[in-house]
């Protein structure tokens, strides 16, 4: 039996006009901006899905994806368009800064749980790294201090992988044996799984960073958002970061990827860490709170 020609023949490249329309849709729905010079990233994912569906025209598939009833198809396509490059403890200086911050929390007399958030968690390595760090530090205390870590991403497949917590042995390369012995258990000869007691402290859920205003997270002590905003336009990066600041608890720590934003400041944040780290601590009293308190004091004096 002969195979359909759309399987055996190479599909034509997107024209500039077709690419522009696909790029506009992709940016509207994910925030990522892919320039013409990196068009292969977008085209490869689109073509792969077109072949699965037996569609051989870019315009026909774009029309399908744009239909109001095509949410499930868009969710499927997005799996081929998102980058999942990540690893455990990817940027060590950032975790050193987080460790110092957590130590300061543990030295206080706080009673509420420590809450952390991994934004754009992909397949979960960053989220589990945060959980391992917290678990190590909390276990050294002479009192019980609960903690939770939430990982969010736009990709349902990546989140499913993260929830399973199963990784190939090669993903542990370079990790301290104290970590691997404590937090991983073997699954056959080639894979390992996150240990059950750590899984109890972690949850994963789908969040599109373009819709942070709908996200239920708030009053977070620690937020990691690294290597997510690389392909976002500057104005959108600033908008997302400012929304993360709103969800940060007073005194909380926001850790971004080095180089993801420059020449930027926020009235409620103070930079922390070494020059290799892009991290900010939220002031105990925000600029808005100071203004309101000043106004209240002035009003009280007038009365």
Automatic annotation (TrEMBL):
InterPro entries registered for this protein in UniProt: Bact_Chemotaxis_MeTrfase (IPR050903), CheR_C (IPR022642), CheR_MeTrfase (IPR000780), CheR_N_sf (IPR036804), SAM-dependent_MTases_sf (IPR029063)
Alphabetized UniProt keyword annotations: Methyltransferase, S-adenosyl-L-methionine, Transferase
Record-listed E.C. numbers: 2.1.1.80
GO biological process: methylation
Protein name according to UniProt: protein-glutamate O-methyltransferase
Domain CheR-type methyltransferase: 7-260
Pfam families: CheR
GO molecular function, one term: protein-glutamate O-methyltransferase activity
Domain of life: Bacteria
Enzyme class: transferase
Source lineage: Bacteria, Pseudomonadati, Pseudomonadota, Gammaproteobacteria, Oceanospirillales
Record field: catalytic activity: L-glutamyl-[protein] + S-adenosyl-L-methionine = [protein]-L-glutamate 5-O-methyl ester + S-adenosyl-L-homocysteine
Gene: cheR_1
Transmembrane domains' residue ranges: none
Source organism per UniProt: Parendozoicomonas haliclonae
